[in-house]
Structures are given as C-alpha cells and as structure tokens.
Automatic annotation (TrEMBL):
NCBIfam families (alphabetical): RIP metalloprotease RseP
Name of the protein described by the UniProt record: Zinc metalloprotease
Keyword Protease: yes
EC number: 3.4.24.-
Cofactor: Zn(2+)
Protein keywords: Hydrolase, Membrane, Metal-binding, Metalloprotease, Protease, Transmembrane, Transmembrane helix, Zinc
Leading EC class: hydrolase
GO molecular function: metal ion binding; metalloendopeptidase activity
TM segment ranges: 97-122, 276-295, 323-341
Domain PDZ: 122-185
Family: Belongs to the peptidase M50B family.
Alphabetized Pfam families for the sequence: PDZ_6 (PF17820), Peptidase_M50 (PF02163)
Gene designation: rseP
Tagged with keyword Ubl conjugation: no
Length: 351
C-alpha cells in the first residue's frame, strides 16, 4: 500500500509540475522535444509531432526537454545564419520566466484542486455528538452522564456534532446548563456546570469524543472553492514562515527527506483516502515553494539568472550557467542522500 500510495502521490505532483512547464512552453511557441514522467530507461513512448511522451522506469522525477536548452545546440544556432523560432533561448525573458514559473504554479493549482475535491466530494470528517468517555470526578461524571450518551441539545438549542457541542460548553464556565441526552433511545435531561480550565480559559465538562462515531460532511461547490483557496494560502504562509524561522535560526532545521515522506504517505494511506489527498496537497505546496528558492538546479535559480539577464541586458554564458546547475544538482543529490540516511536512522529508533 505504501509503495502504490507513494507512486500515486509523487506521480501526481510530478505530472502537474511538468505539465505546467509543458503547456506554457507550447503556448509560447517553444518546440517541446520530450515530456517524460520518471527517470532512467524508457518503458513506454509515443511520438506526436515534435514531442516524445514517455514513461520511464524510476518514479523519482520527470522532465520537459525543450529545444534550445542544450548549450551545444545554442552554439550551432549561433554559427548558423538563421535563428530557430522554436528555441527556448530565442524567446523573450518574460516568456522564458513564465515557462519556468509555470511548474511551481501548477503545484499550487493542484493543491487547490485537491482541497476542493476533499471538501466537495469526500467531505470533511465530522465527529458526532456521541460521548466516548467520561473523566472521573469531573462535572459530567458527577451529573450522571455516561459513555455512549448522545447530546442532542443544550438549553433547548439542538447540537448535531461535536464541534457544535464544544462551542456551547467552552464559553459557559461556571454557568449551569441543561443537556438533553439520548441514552439508548430515551431522552433524559441533565443539569451540569462546566468547570474552568485555567490554562485554556474555557469551560469543560470532562467528556471525550467517541472517535469511532463520525461522518463525512460535504460542502457546496462554491464553499469548497473558497476553502480550497483559503487553505492553500494559509498553508503557503505557514511554510514560508517556517522557512524564514529556520533560516534565521529562530526554529530548528527539521527537514524530512524522501524516506520520511514515503513513511508519512504510508501512514496517511492507512487512515483513509481523504488523509492521503490532504497530505498530497501539503506536499504539492511544499514542492511549489521549494522549487522557487534560488538554489542551483531548481527553477528559482533559473528565474534568478533571467533576472540578472534582464538587468545586464545580455544572458550569462549558457555553458557557465549549466555548470552552476550541474554543481547545484550534485549538491542536492548529496544532501538528499544524507537526509535519507538520517530518516532511516530516525525510523529505526535512533537519534
């Protein structure tokens, strides 16, 4: 299950990211030579026009290969009398930047779509108003409330789920309330006064939700869009804030690598489809942000080189730029191996 879930999540993230590069390149008139999902040997390929659509053996990445991105190819163009209109490097800085940025942009789009699907199709898991446990010597226990009771109303106000019940209890510390409780089909009334929790400054009865009693509550389509946009924005803000705190040393640099991500995907898959999609949305936003950082070999560094070109009025030597990306790629691979090693040690119970 972990393997299949990991292939699904990584495949989804990669396909959307690379499709962003691909579709904007096509719109900009760039000749796309290959659109591949995966790395390594080709398992399947289909040539359509100038583009080879391929599935490769290793599900660890993907790429879009465009005309004009090879330094040797650019040198041949310079030596020739005519410029290739379909070459990436012959397009304007704006078009090239749009092509590069589109990959990360599509990761944000994917996150929004996943959130919309979760809210509109799967639904939000909502705990019902059934009490799973009653803590001893707390107001609910002293009033005679028992595990398995279902609270149907508070002071004649109906409650249909646990969230509504908590909203009635928390602001009522020290204030007596009437609970209408369904116990095995018979409704009984209990008078109980929530005790103040000094740490959280809220009223509490000493009751615990029955985690096995829940249902999925679907949202309307427009509300799902609103929630999808809001969640993606909040998640982006949270990740950026966390990165800033790690860079400034305000928070420890807790970084999880591929091994840890696969482990979390496996756990999410075991708990349900909606949790797996939620994790995929979170990873998609992470990928979109990380890929825009100005680190060699990532899209962010390519955007930085384009900004330098715009300021200088001429591009940096493609061979030198590619060498920088190659060194950055080697560094990233080494870093990933080290992080993966640390992940394995942590999963095995080490420090």
């Amino acid at each position: 299950m972990t393997f299949l879930a990991s292939v699904f999540v990584f495949g989804l993230l990669i396909v959307f990211h690379e499709f962003g590069h691909f579709i904007v390149a096509k719109m900009a008139g760039v000749r796309v030579l290959e659109f591949s999902v995966g790395m390594g040997p080709k398992l399947f390929g289909h040539q359509r026009g100038p583009t080879l659509y391929a599935l490769r053996a290793l599900p660890i990445g993907g790429f879009v290969r465009m005309a004009g991105m090879d330094p040797e190819e650019n040198k041949e163009q310079e030596e020739g009398s005519l410029k290739d209109a379909g070459s990436f490097n012959n397009k304007s800085i704006f078009k090239r930047a749009a092509i590069i940025f589109a990959g990360s942009f599509m990761n944000f789009v994917l996150a929004i779509l996943l959130f919309i699907y979760i809210y509109a199709i799967v639904g939000i898991p909502m705990f019902t108003n059934v009490i799973g446990d009653v803590l001893p010597d707390r107001p609910a226990a002293m009033a005679g409330i028992q595990p398995g009771d279902r609270v149907v109303a508070v002071d004649d106000r109906p409650v249909s789920n646990w969230a509504e019940l908590i909203q009635e209890i928390h602001p009522r510390a020290g204030e007596e309330m009437r609970l209408m409780v369904d116990r095995q089909g018979m409704v009984q009334e209990f008078r109980v006064t929530p005790a103040l929790d000094p740490e959280r400054n809220v009223g509490q009865l000493g009751i615990v939700v029955d985690e096995s009693a829940y249902h999925h509550e679907k949202q309307g389509f427009l509300e799902s869009i609103r929630l999808g946009l809001m969640n993606t924005y909040m998640l982006t803000s949270l990740i950026l804030e966390s990165l800033y705190q790690m860079i400034t040393g305000a928070a420890p640099a807790e970084v999880g690598g591929p091994v840890m991500i696969v482990s979390e995907i496996g756990k999410a898959a075991e708990t349900g489809w909606s949790n797996l999609l939620m994790l995929a949305a979170i990873l998609s936003v992470n990928l979109g942000i990380i890929n825009l950082l100005p680190i060699p070999a990532l899209d962010g560094s390519r955007l930085l080189f384009l900004a330098i070109e715009a300021i200088r009025g001429k591009p940096i030597d493609p061979a030198k730029e590619n060498m920088i990306h190659l060194i950055g790629f080697a560094f990233l691979i080494t870093l990933m191996i080290l992080i993966a090693y640390r992940d394995v040690i942590r999963l095995m119970g080490g420090e």
